[in-house]
Design brief:
The structure holds two protein chains of two kinds. Chain A is an all-alpha fold. Chain A is 87% helix and 0% strand. Chain A has a domain of 76 residues. Classes of the chains: A mainly alpha, B mainly alpha.
């Protein structure tokens, strides 16, 4: 404000900046204009960042408290959950045990059937062996007995039988041959 | 400004504490749950092992019973073989006679000693 009361009025000049009120007014207007132009956005940005920080902090606090409450609730239900897990495990164990018992009963029945079949097969094998033994023994005994029974009468009878069979075989063959000859003649 | 900064700091501190408590509670919860699951698994394993043991014992018993029955059958056959051969001697003699008759006729009847026939049957079996 000193320029308003400047001394040396004799040297007062409108061209002197310090003495020109218009210049000072213009400078003031420019300063006010610049202030109004740039400071609101700066303050607004600052306000927004503070608001965001407040909001974030409040959100983090709420989330932390919510998480804590959830965990407390889970812990409160932990005994019930543990009892449920154990009950399901006992139920599963009982089911598996029952399945195994049923499977065992089935397998034992199959095994008993196989054993019975094996015993039957063994008996059948023994019977077959005895039949075979009886047949073998009869052949052996017959082979031993037959020579002792071969007297003249038997030999004669066997020879007669052989000759009769030979005659019948020869006659049937000659009949067949004559038939064939007749057939060829016809052709 | 200071009040706002303190509020922000306080909220963040509360959040940090809440999360720390939550993590501690969660760790305890998970530890206990793990123990419960281990116990549940042990319950199932013990039940299955017990049933499996009973199954093995029953199957072994049946196998042993079958083996004994088979051995008894064989032993009974071996023991009864002598009497079976005795009962076969007469039939064997008749069978040999019928073979001889078919071969050479019934003019001569073979004389078969029972002891000899029995011996032949024993040798063949």
């Amino acid at each position: 404000m000193f320029f308003l009361f400047a001394a040396e009025p004799a040297s007062f000049s409108l061209l002197d900046f310090q003495n020109n009120i218009i210049n000072w007014l213009a400078m003031f207007v420019v300063i006010v204009w610049l202030w109004r132009k740039y400071t609101p956005s700066m303050f607004e940005s600052r306000k927004n960042s503070i608001q965001t920080a407040l909001q974030d902090a409040a959100t983090a606090r709420e989330q932390g408290e919510k998480l804590l409450l959830e965990q407390k609730a889970r812990v409160a239900n932990q005994d019930q959950e543990a009892a449920q897990i154990l009950a399901e495990a006992r139920k599963l164990a009982a089911e598996l045990k029952q399945q195994l018992i049923e499977q065992t009963a089935h397998d034992i029945a199959d095994l008993q059937k196989k054993m019975e079949n094996r015993i039957l097969n063994e008996r059948q094998l023994m019977i077959t062996q005895m039949r075979s033994a009886a047949a073998t023994a009869s052949i052996k005994l017959t082979r031993e007995v037959l020579p002792t029974l071969m007297n003249e009468t038997v030999k004669k009878n066997l020879l007669n039988q052989f000759m009769e069979q030979l005659d019948s075989a020869t006659s049937s063959r000659s009949t067949i041959s004559s038939d064939l000859f007749d057939a060829k003649s016809v052709r | 400004m200071e009040r706002r900064a303190a509020k922000i700091q306080g909220d963040l501190e509360k959040s940090r504490l809440s999360r720390k408590q939550s993590e501690e509670i969660l760790a305890q919860y998970q530890e206990k749950l793990h123990l419960i699951r281990v116990e549940a698994q042990r319950t199932v394993s013990e039940a299955v092992a017990e049933a499996q043991k009973e199954r093995n014992e029953q199957i072994l018993a049946v196998q042993e019973k079958g083996r004994l029955q088979l051995e008894e059958t064989k032993a009974a056959f071996t023991a009864g073989k002598s009497s079976l051969i005795d009962s076969l001697v007469v039939q064997e003699i008749e069978f040999v006679r019928s073979i001889v008759v078919k071969l050479i006729g019934d003019s001569n009847q073979p004389h078969l000693d029972e002891v000899k026939v029995r011996l032949a049957l024993e040798e063949a079996s």
